[in-house]
Design brief:
The structure holds 2 protein chains of 2 kinds. By secondary structure, chain A is of the alpha+beta class. Chain A has helices at residues 2-26, 28-63, 78-89, 102-113, 116-120, 142-153, 166-207, 209-217, 222-265, 276-303, and strands spanning 68-72, 94-100, 130-135, 158-163. In chain A, helix 2 (28-63) runs antiparallel to helix 7 (166-207). Chain B has 7 helices and 10 strands. The chains are: A alpha+beta, B alpha/beta.
């Protein structure tokens, strides 16, 4: 008997679920509009999140390549420079060093700049010797790098120690700012989804006041009255989430070509990470939660005011 | 079955609809509730259906003290009361079958049982052929019979009707009353509010008459 009741219960839920989907189907234009609004509201923060994750991925690739250029005092002799480079190599937070004498620097500059004749007119070599330092992997945290930089700067022979990837820190700060911004946007847009669904359900409740009164008159509980509206919210949220996913997918498809071309131009192996699997779960799930929650809030507010008279 | 003991009903505007009302209806009895408009007939029925609560005094139905019934139990209580209204209160976007099935769906009956009992109820009121129709396609008398089928499909021990013949001509009214008599003959306690004295004068049932909220 109990088994039969549970069976009936699930059957009833399935029926209400399909019934509420049928209700949406009966007003296709209005339903589609609500679903689109929810979809766009969800797609926006999701899209920005995917973008941010990609920027983070790119910058983490470059982060490995962060290096420090150590410009030595002008008059540092070659053997002293080499000695210093070897000494630095023994530091635990330094992975590799490369010594470049002032002659080497001049030769490189000659080759790259093509200012041969101009350089010949100079009375002496203006370029200092340089030690290029590759910090140890895992020493990429800004503070550790900063400390290393300071220690290098304080060495007697060093004229200037320069972290070549300072712009990377800036990029990271921009990323962090972006992350905050997206979080706020996501919260606000989720709230708007909640309100859109709540308002839609409220209108549905008001248009079915008579029905609700009759159901209560023949012994319908609040749970019974609430159920179809919760499922309506469920459908709005789920369909909105799917629309959001499709919107995201189409947007990424649209920008994928140009991004790949850009990456090729930079000789980069970079591929746009779509996060499509993650988003396929996250967006409909999140949409559904918002949908049911919005419906619950709306029904809770209005259900008790509709009583038989 | 239904017992009122010193019941008062005051509305917030100080209007007193019922004043010190006491009476009793025994199990399986059929009775009429009469009186002028505004005498308190509807209020009395609403107290039995728990659409309203008494301001003072106690209402007992089926050995249950309604004054003490918590709000969340009201739906379960209403499933044991059949209600028939003057304006039928049917859902116009659902078929006759679905309208009658509503109390059973709410009670969580299984599919086969619902089909069986809805058809039995429709058969009883003579509308078996109309189960696929929408209420709007039916005449007033037929709509009222759908309302009655819905009220009895749960097999409630008590059947309340508020002016069930209010919009019907004498012949149709007579048919509706015959239906109520038939339910009463199988043991249902029937209580009908009406001002159609001409109709009920020919019927041998007790009459409870209200006058300004008191027994006349």
């Amino acid at each position: 008997m109990i088994k039969l009741n549970i069976h009936n219960y699930f059957l009833r839920h399935m029926q209400v679920m399909l019934y509420s989907l049928g209700q949406l189907w009966r007003t296709p234009a209005a339903s589609a509009m609500t679903v689109m609004v929810i979809g766009i509201a969800l797609a926006l923060p999701a899209g920005l999140y995917v973008l941010l994750k990609n920027v983070e991925q790119v910058s983490s690739q470059w982060e490995d390549a962060s290096q420090i250029s150590l410009f030595l005092q002008h008059n540092t002799p070659d053997n002293r420079g080499k000695q210093l480079a070897e000494q630095l190599l023994s530091w635990p937070d330094i992975n590799a060093v490369h010594y470049q004498s002032s002659q080497d620097s001049l030769a490189e500059f000659r080759q790259l700049s093509g200012l041969d004749s101009l350089l010949d007119t100079l009375p002496s070599n203006p370029l200092p010797p340089v030690i290029v330092i590759q910090p140890e992997q895992g020493q990429n945290e800004t503070e550790a790098l900063q400390a290393l930089l300071e220690r290098l700067q304080n060495m007697q022979e060093v004229e200037l120690a320069q972290l070549d990837m300072q712009w990377l820190q800036r990029l990271r700060s921009i990323n962090q700012t972006g992350e905050r911004g997206i979080s706020i946007l996501a919260v606000l847009l989720s709230l708007s989804v909640l309100l859109v669904i709540g308002n839609t359900i409220r209108l549905a409740i008001l248009s079915r006041q008579t029905e609700i009164r009759v159901i209560k008159l023949v012994g319908g509980t609040n749970a019974f009255v609430r159920r179809p509206f919760l499922y309506t919210g469920f459908w709005y949220g789920l369909l909105g989430g799917i629309i959001a996913w499709l919107t995201l997918l189409m947007t990424l498809l649209f920008i994928n070509g140009p991004v790949n071309r850009l990456a090729t131009l930079y000789d980069s192996q970079f591929m746009l990470n779509w996060l499509s699997g993650q988003m396929f779960i996250a967006l409909p799930l999140f949409g559904t939660i918002l949908g049911v929650l919005g419906a619950w809030l709306a029904v809770g507010r209005h259900l008790n005011t509709i009583e038989p008279t | 079955m239904i017992r009122f003991s010193d019941v008062y009903k005051r509305y917030s505007n100080q209007h007193e609809a019922l004043s010190g009302l006491s009476f009793e209806l025994s199990k399986g009895e059929m009775a009429f509730l009469t009186g002028h408009s505004g005498a308190g007939k509807s209020t009395l029925l609403k107290l039995i259906a728990l659409i309203e609560r008494s301001s003072h005094g106690q209402v007992w139905v089926n050995n249950q003290n309604l004054t003490r019934l918590p709000k969340w139990k009201v739906p379960y209580y209403r499933r044991k009361i059949g209600l028939v209204f003057q304006d039928h209160n049917l859902l116009h976007d659902r078929t006759v079958f679905d309208n009658v099935a509503l109390p059973l769906i709410i009670a969580g009956e299984n599919h086969r049982e619902i089909g069986r009992r809805v058809r039995a109820a429709l058969d009883k009121v003579g509308l078996l052929g109309k189960e696929r129709s929408l209420p709007i396609a039916l005449s007033g008398g037929e709509q009222q019979r759908v309302g009655i089928a819905r009220a009895v499909v749960n097999r409630p021990p008590v059947l309340l009707a508020d002016e069930p013949t209010g919009n019907l001509d004498p012949a149709l009214s007579r048919e509706i009353m015959d239906l109520f008599e038939q339910f009463n003959q199988v043991g249902v306690t029937v209580f009908i509010a009406t001002h159609d004295l001409e109709l009920i004068n020919r019927m041998p049932y007790r009459r409870i008459t209200l006058e300004q909220g008191r027994l006349a």
